[in-house]
Amino acid sequence: MQTISKPYLLSSEDLTRDDINLIFQRAKFFQDNYTPGSRFDDLKGISVALAFFENSTRTKLSFEIAAKRLSADTIGFAASTSSLSKGESLLDTLKTIEAMGVQIYVIRHGSSGAQQFLQRNTSGIILNAGDGKHEHPTQALLDNYTLLNHFGKLEGLKITIVGDIFHSRVARSNINVMKTLGMEVKFLGPGTLLPQQNNPWNVDFCTNLDEAIEWSDILLVLRLQRERMNSGLLPSIEEFSNFFGVTAEKISRKPELVVMHPGPVNYGVELDYRISTYPNCLIQTQVTSGVYIRMAVLSLLSEYLKK
Asked: I want to staple 140 with a disulfide (CB 3.0 to 4.6 A). Which of 28, 63, 119, 173 is the partner?
């Protein structure tokens, strides 16, 4: 059975073009063959821990649904009710769960690099569900899978990532995947929220939203991550919305433009609520794609446990 090139998924940089295409093929298989109530046997007899140290709705629920559809034994873990509150270290917590026979760990953590540290200290498989401001690889995979299903191709598509890029793990993962797949990427956002001093991807900037709409096939709009910001990065939320908020009036000039957002959406800040009913708004499609992509990743990684 085929699998991806590394026995874990910590970063989008772990993925080759062949890996990404294999994940998309497996996701398409699940999407075409799943019927409500059915189960696949890919993870039968395998235990999966869902360890989320940060709040989550879409990622946590879709991983849980994905694991259950693959017949895994799932274990939920809430940091607030664990022994972490009594001073137990993150590594000791992992070792405790590992001693119970868990083989795959889906982890979200507020510290960048936490999953990489844990992978070095376990024989299990760790899957990064978001680490600080660093990476969110399965979000990038589901975003690009959504676009592939919509356009029928990815090579040559033009996308502008709009908003709080500096704090966004979604942006970092997407840039790597999109460039690997041959897409053209630009940034748009306030100067204080752009990686101007350290732009390792060599991505160009749009100067305003009108320019971004004219150039792009897709806008990927990001949430303002105020919980990760230092004070003074923005004069006000209202000013950000005036300059960078995507409105129905703006995008109506280009009906074929696709709009995406990883969620949760701050409607009225980065996105006009009316856009949620726009024909080419793919936000809910992204959520649906997330289940199949996460099924695919879990299925492919489980092959390492069967060797």
From this structure: 173
Q: Which two tokens stand for residue 141?
A: 């995979």
Peptide bond into 279 cis (omega under 30): no
Cβ-contact 46, 102 below 8 angstroms:
no
The 10 Å Cβ neighbour count of residue 86 is 6
- pTM, two decimals, is 0.93
SS3 269: coil
Q: How many CB atoms lie within 10 A of CB 31?
A: 17
Instruction: Kindly state the tokens that stand for 67.
Output: 């694991």
Tokens read off for 52: 């989320």
Q: Which domains does the chain have, with CATH numbers?
A: 12-135+290-305 (3.40.50.1370), 137-286 (3.40.50.1370)
Question: For the segment 247-273, what is each residue's pLDDT rounded down to a tens digit?
Answer: 999 999 999 999 999 999 999 999 999
Neighbours of 154 (CB within 10 A): 19
Tokens at residue 48, please? 């999966």
Which residue type is seen at 194? L
Q: Are 223 and 270 in contact (CB under 8 A)?
A: yes
Pair of tokens at residue 176: 């790597």
